[in-house]
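Lab manual, section 2.4: Encoding a predicted structure.

Procedure: take the sequence of the chain (104 residues), apply the prediction step described in section 2.3, and record the output as structure tokens. A sample record is shown.
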Amino acid sequence: MRSAILLCLTSTLCALASACVSPKPIRYYRIDLPQATTAAGSAFPVTLAVGTIDSPPVMKDGRILSDFPTDEDPIHREYVNRAAVAARLAAERTGVHEPTGAAP
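Recorded output:
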């Protein structure tokens, strides 16, 4: 019985002590936009909305995605052809020759 009274008294004192503590102050913030100063006739009727851009996880790993397999991709094929031409021209300018038995 004595421990029940002590528990009740302790609980009451804790409740009273917590009531004496001041709550965290509430702060309200307001954004004041500056007055738009535009030269006469130079304003465009444009609204710019900025938001979070999200993409599927498969696009976030940095690899190149394509609708074509690599050997059938026309953009990749054009890149490889241009790189081969540039390599051939650089080899001709520097006098580097293809090793014997190399594919043409």
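Check your result against the sample. Residues 70-95 form one domain.
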